[in-house]
Design brief:
single chain, alpha+beta, Arc Repressor Mutant, subunit A, 4 helices, 2 strands, 46% helix, 14% strand
C-alpha cells in the first residue's frame, strides 16, 4: 500500500483494557475530530523530510509537544509506514534514543 492510497485516519487508536474511561473518550474524540489523522500525516511528513531522526527531534522540527511524535510513530510503525533505523544520541536532549525513517 502506498502512502497515496493510505488514509491516516483509517486505523483506529487502540486502547488498553486498563485505561480509564476518560482516556478512551479522549482517544475516540481524537479519531472523530480527525485530529489523529492530521497528526499522523504531519509526523509522517517530518519523518520523510528528516530521516533517521529521534522522536524529540521530530517534535522540534514540527514545533509540537514531544509526546505527539512518540505516540504517532508507534502507530505509524504498526501501520507499516515507518521503521526504527537505529539508536544514537539525540541532538535535542542528549539522550540515547531510537531513530526513525520511512519504511521501504
Amino acid at each position: 500500500m502506498t502512502q497515496e492510497q493510505f488514509s491516516f485516519a483509517s486505523e483506529p487508536q487502540r486502547h488498553r483494557r486498563t485505561d480509564p474511561v476518560t482516556s478512551q473518550i479522549a482517544g475516540d474524540t481524537m479519531i472523530d475530530s480527525g485530529k489523529i489523522g492530521k497528526q499522523r500525516q504531519i509526523v509522517f511528513d517530518l519523518v520523510k523530510s528528516h530521516p533517521d531522526s529521534t522522536s524529540a527531534e521530530i517534535a522540534r522540527y514540527g514545533n509540537m509537544d514531544r509526546h505527539i511524535p512518540g505516540r504517532r510513530l508507534t502507530e505509524l510503525i504498526r501501520l507499516g509506514l515507518v521503521e526504527i533505523t537505529g539508536r544514537r544520541s539525540c541532538q535535542t536532549n542528549g539522550n540515547l534514543m531510537q531513530t526513525y525513517a520511512r519504511k521501504g
